[in-house]
Amino acid sequence: MATRMRLKLKTVFVLYFLVSLLGLIYALMQLGQRCDCTEHDIPKERTISRLRGELHRLQEQVRRLEATRQPRKESYLPTIFVITPTYARLVQKAELTRLSQTFLHVPQLHWIVVEDSQHKTPLVGQLLATSGLSYTHLHVATAKEHKLQEGDPSWLKPRGVEQRNEALRWLREDRMAHTDARGQEGVVYFADDDNTYSLQIFEEMRSTQQVSVWPVGLVGGMKYEKPVVEGGKVVRFHVGWRPSRPFPMDMAGFAVSLKLLLANPDARFDGNAPMGFLESSLLQGLVTMDQLEPKAANCSKVLVWHTRTEKPKMKREDALQAQGLGSDAAVESITLDAHRARARRMTISKDSRKSSVRGSIRAPKFLDKSSGFYDRLDEPESAPLEDSFDEESVMDVRSLSEDDGQTLLRGTPSGRWRRRSSRRKQKQGGSQEASPLGSASLGVSEVPQQAPNQEDPLTHFSTREDADDQVLIRDKKRMKREQEEVMKVVKRNTMKTYRKAVDQAFRRGWEVFLANIYSVTLTPDYSSRNKHQRNVVLAEFQ
User: What is the DSSP letter of 378?
Assistant: First the structure.
């Protein structure tokens, strides 16, 4: 049995070896020959072709959907007309740049920028042209009587009234030219250039039917001011100052339907409205409080903030401007008319008397030790000369520059030398009046002979004494005028400071008074069990 098993295993092993050897030989014979694999590639090619066809079909469907959806979205999306008044100042370009880049994220928006200027400025025009927005550039100057003067508080007079009314006028003329109904659909929003806006607020206002309202943060000395909504209607306003106003809201807290403005052509802002009533002057002729449409989750979210940019301090710039080393005027961020005028006012010109008067507020010319005026302040006044002084009798200093060998010209006398000459003339007194030539003599006094060891004194010109006295008198008159100008400026600044302090004190007192009034809460007394007394108390409370 064992021998038979061995033979069988041996036979199996030999057969396996032979089959493997034949397979190896066949494989080696097939090397180098082209293999007909079409039968295997046909299923793969069919699968790839099927997937490519499906991809093309899906791409065509996406294109058709985009082609049909995009025009519908643009046509049915109401346009938001944003009105922004602006004026020339150092931060103007920064404010408008920030605002324009916010508007770029809002679809179907038209920006109306109105400058408070006699003409359109290149800075604003170039900024709008490169902003990528649909815009309209207007300009109108504020009347002089409606402008804030230097030192006036910002709340004294409303700002941007003429600019907003100009934008409303353009809107009515432009939209009335469209005969189709969709051309007159839209929302009007008044956005100041220094506020901060969330993108969500624009989507909230897009569905405005008449006037929509929402909260505004950081305004009126409060965290926020908001309409109080009960049952989907605005019943009152949460404000800290004069809640009895018809519409105690900030300009950034409402939007108006374009149709409503077109239906009321006389609706506009009143520039003579009392403080805080500017918004009410427009809204009173459009809607009532019951018709207001609360937005932002029933006025529970703050989506706009009444922020203000800090006014930059230009002390170093002014100092460099005074020295002629100011910033390069070719840089666009400083090419503002207001900044140029301010730089011209702060520039100190030595050849301009007007500039010296302006600069005398800080350092008057007669207090400058480098000039001869400072030493003459303690000098006793000399006897006044006649006003009919003959200018021809004064010898020109330039004519004395030609030395004849006997006289010596030492240049223009300093303030100290002029003072000595004046005192010497006072001591001499009538001796010069007895002279046959008088004070109008054109001759030069002879130089006295000095001993060899004696110091050579300064040469004195009698004609120059008269000229020095006349210069001194003219300088004293000019000094007096400068002193009067300085006193006027000091008095004017004092009055402005006093008026500003009085305004601030009055405002603080008024706010405290209003806070005390509205802090009083009347509560009916229900402690009495008598029904009649309770009804009387309720009637009095109502």
Answer: G
486 versus 425: the higher-pLDDT residue is: 486
Checking 147-154 for CB contacts under 8 A at 24+ apart, the result is 150/496, 151/496, 151/497, 151/499, 151/500, 153/500, 153/503, 153/504, 153/507
- Tokens 């939209």: give the residue: 175
Residue 176's pLDDT is 84
39 among known catalytic residues: no
SS3 per-residue string spanning 442-510? CCCCCCCCCCCCCCCCCCCCHHHHHHHHHHHHHHHHHHHHHHHHHHHHHHHHHHHHHHHHHHHHHHHHH
- Of the candidates 115, 166, 279, 293, the residue annotated as catalytic is 279
216-219: strand order across its sheet: 196-197, 304-305, 216-219, 222-230, 233-238
Task: Check residue 379 and report its DSSP letter.
Answer: S
Integer Cα distance of 137 and 139 in angstroms = 7
Q: What letter would DSSP give residue 256? A: E
**pLDDT at res. 27:** 80
Strand partners for 134 = 110
- Over the stretch 94-145, which tens digit does the pLDDT of each residue have? 999 999 999 999 999 999 999 999 999 999 999 999 999 999 999 999 988 8
Q: Which residues contact 458 (CB under 8 A, 6 or more apart)?
A: 410, 417
For 54-82, what is the mean pLDDT? 78
Between the alpha carbon of residue 361 and those of residues 143, 229, 311, 415, 486, the distances in Å are: 30, 56, 23, 23, 6
Tell me which residue of 112, 126, 100, 101 sits closest to 336, measured CA to CA: 126
Domains detected in the chain: 72-305 (3.90.550.10), 315-367 (no CATH)
At 313-361, the pLDDT tens digits run: 888 888 888 888 888 777 765 445 555 545 554 443 434 444 434 443 3
- Identify the three-state secondary structure at position 294: strand
CB 415 within 8 A of CB 375: yes
In this predicted model, what pLDDT tens digit does every residue of 213-250 receive, in sequence order? Answer: 999 999 989 999 999 999 999 999 999 999 999 999 99
Q: Is the pLDDT of residue 487 over 70?
A: yes
Q: Is the pTM of this model over 0.85?
A: no
Which has the higher per-residue pLDDT, 60 or 198? Answer: 198
In 84-150, alpha helices (H): 92-103, 122-129
Which of 124, 101, 269 shows the shortest CA–CA distance to 190?
269
The residues that bridge with 293 in the sheet, in sequence order, are 212
Residue 331 and residue 339: Cα distance in Å, rounded? 12
- Specify the amino acid at residue 66: E
Axis-axis angle for helices 415-428, 462-519 (nearest 10): 120
